[in-house]
Design a protein that fits this description.
223 residues, alpha+beta, four-stranded mixed β-sheet, 8 helices, globular
């Protein structure tokens, strides 16, 4: 396949950055189309034709349109690098990767979005401090995963690392001290050196945190 991919993207979006990081790592030819959520560009008729759920990211590959970031990550490997260890073909290895992806999709990312969405999308001006504990619990779970392997799901990079790291970087920018999670902190530092485009992940996290602090008129959480 040689078609140029299009990624509908917002730098503050953690799932968007997961796809961006993998596409950079795979050295794919792709175009970014920014969708600015605070200006409600995701509600445009044009965008709704791509994703009726009106969420980002969205990947366009010629006449094929795919949304949901973890589906995009898997598709990119299956279509561009079939058999790549980034998404192992062994059922047990892939099962472990999928388990981490599902934990991210069903627990960690929702914990983060419960803080972000009310402020960014619904223009709330305060965050409940009770939302801090679930994020701390997720960071502990991720730290414990790293007792088993060098990376989140294996002893090598997988798409689970790409899916999860943008939320960890965002948590760090929100004020969570990664030094309390030493294995996770070391993993994050390692990925910063391993992943092309990681500076965009950091930048997007900083943009997200700065937008939140401005709207809240101060810190996101009290630590």
């Amino acid at each position: 396949m040689s078609n140029k991919l299009i990624l509908y993207y917002l730098s503050g979006s953690m799932p968007s950055r997961a796809c961006y990081l993998l596409m950079k790592t795979l050295n794919l030819d792709f175009e970014i189309k920014e969708v600015f959520i605070p200006k409600k560009q995701h509600f445009s008729e044009e965008f709704a034709k791509l994703n009726p759920l009106k969420k980002i990211p969205v990947l366009v590959d010629d006449d094929y349109v795919l949304y949901e970031s973890r589906a995009i990550l898997a598709y990119l490997i299956n279509s561009r690098r079939p058999g790549d260890p980034l998404y192992p073909t062994d059922p047990k290895e892939r099962g472990k990767v999928d388990q981490r992806l599902y934990y991210d999709a069903s627990v960690f990312l929702p914990n983060m979005l419960s803080v972000i969405v009310p402020v960014v999308v619904h223009e709330k001006t305060e965050v409940s401090q009770t939302l801090k504990k679930p994020i701390e619990e997720s960071l502990t779970v991720l730290d414990n995963y790293l007792n088993e392997n060098e990376f989140i799901a294996s002893n090598h990079l997988t798409i689970a690392d790409f899916s999860i790291v943008p939320s960890v970087t965002t948590a760090k920018e929100f004020g969570f001290d990664l030094n309390k999670y030493p294995k996770l902190n070391a993993w994050h530092d390692k990925l910063e050196k391993l992943m092309p485009g990681f500076e965009e992940n950091v930048h997007g996290s900083k943009v997200n945190a700065a937008f939140m602090r401005k709207r809240l008129g101060g810190s996101i959480f009290q630590f």
